[in-house]
Amino acid sequence: MAAFSSSALDIDPAHLAQDVHRLFDDLARRRPDRRHVVAGECMPVVDVFVTERSVEVVLDLPGVSADALRVLIKGGVVLVVGEKERPEPSKRVPASFHLVERDFGRFARAVRLQAAVDASAARARLANGELHIVLPRLQERRGQGILIPVETPATRPGE
Fold first, then answer.
1. Tens digit of pLDDT for each residue in 68-123?
2. Closest CA to 78 of 61, 44, 55
3. The pLDDT value given to residue 58
4. How many domains is the chain built from?
5. Sign of CA dihedral 60, 63, 66, 69
6. Helix (H) or strand (E) run with residue 21 in it
7. Which residue among 48, 52, 149, 154 is the one 20 to 30 A from 39 at the CA level?
């Protein structure tokens, strides 16, 4: 079957299905996996940056207050839990929704860290709809030699 191509639209029907699949794959890579998100929950997007000195976790949280957030680090995982309240509909003009794309509801995002961090020195800042978490990295110790002194009965302290 010969491929039909319109110069005005430049569409090749033989490759249209491939192009549509590629488009949806690209969209899926840009958003977190939402298959397990239930009604009344939302899934904020997150970026993780690793620098020489820190691991930085950034979440888009427009409309979320600091009081509605909890940030915890345990066992190499950063957990951000909170809730984004749905704004009240306009009371001036009766209306129904025409399009709803924004997420509202409870959320929990867990980010496994790939580097050792100093959790006690971590800090989080919420500004302009972004939660920015900075976790200072610990110096990598794996692979470094550590001298272990050898004790003898004469060198043992307290004897």
1. 999 999 989 999 999 988 776 655 566 677 777 777 889 999 999 999 999 999 99
2. 55
3. 97
4. 1
5. negative
6. helix 13-30
7. 48
Distance CA 12, CA 7 (A): 10
Decide if 10 is inside a domain: no
Which residue reads 């977190």 in tokens? 32
In a domain, 2, yes or no: no
In our burial notation (b when 16+ CB lie closer than 10 A, e otherwise), range 13-30 reads eeeeeeeeeeeeeeeeee
Confirm whether 69 is domain-assigned.
yes
156 found inside a domain: no
Pairing of strands 54-60, 69-74: unpaired
- The domain in which residue 113 lies consists of 38-87+103-136
Residues 6+ apart with CB under 8 A from 102: none
Q: Residue 104: CB partners within 8 Å, gap ≥ 6?
A: 40, 42, 84, 85, 86
What are the tens digits of pLDDT across the range 21-38?
676 666 555 555 554 445
Q: What is the pLDDT of residues 42-76, one digit of tens each?
A: 889 999 999 999 999 999 999 899 999 999 999 89
pLDDT given for residue 36 in this prediction: 47
Instruction: Specify the CATH number for the domain of residue 57.
Output: 2.60.40.790
The amino acid sitting at 99 is: L
